[in-house]
Specification:
By secondary structure, this protein is mostly beta strands. The chain is 0% helix and 55% strand. Strands 1-2-3-4-5-6-7-8 form an 8-stranded antiparallel barrel. The chain is globular, with a radius of gyration of 15 Å. The two termini are 15 Å apart.
């Protein structure tokens, strides 16, 4: 049995689900000092939950790009929304078949939810890989895992 994460109620189990999808970036957003990035994925669940992240990757070094933004997880008429912090960075041990691999390390902090009986409070952890084409507005595949006290509909 998995132990509860910090901020998780004692009865909630920590679970992990996989995801796959795509990510694009551009340099056109006035809201971002470097790159605006979108991530769209489907969680491997019985209800086909979707995950959308949007935010800014900042240029701090040539190997790690801090990322801040928002997220939404939706399944049926239910959803969880909140903020994202973390990093997009190199290197990763994953191979991307000619594309540029980047590790994804994000903490998703739920701030609201609809259609389920709990207020989401415990952060979720997203770990994954983005295979970037290194070309603005050209999608690159993403994959990885989402871990935390997930509601029943997205387990």
């Amino acid at each position: 049995m998995a132990l509860p994460a910090a901020g998780t109620a004692a009865g909630e189990r920590i679970r992990t689900v996989e995801f796959t999808g795509t990510s694009t970036f551009d340099f056109e957003s006035v809201e971002c000092s470097f790159a605006h990035q979108l991530f769209d994925a489907t969680l491997t669940t019985s209800r086909g939950a979707t995950l959308h992240l949007e935010g800014c990757a900042d240029l701090v070094s040539s190997t790690v790009f801090p990322f801040t933004g928002t997220f939404a997880i939706e399944w049926g008429r239910r959803s969880i929304t909140g903020t994202v912090t973390g990093s997009v960075g190199w290197p990763t041990s994953s191979t991307c078949g000619g594309l540029f691999p980047a590790g994804l390390d994000f903490e998703l902090t739920p701030t609201s939810g609809t259609g389920w009986p709990h207020d989401p409070v415990a952060p979720l952890q997203l770990d994954g890989v983005w295979c970037s084409s290194a070309t603005p507005n050209v999608p690159g595949p993403i994959s990885g895992t989402l871990t935390g006290a997930l509601p029943p509909g997205i387990r």
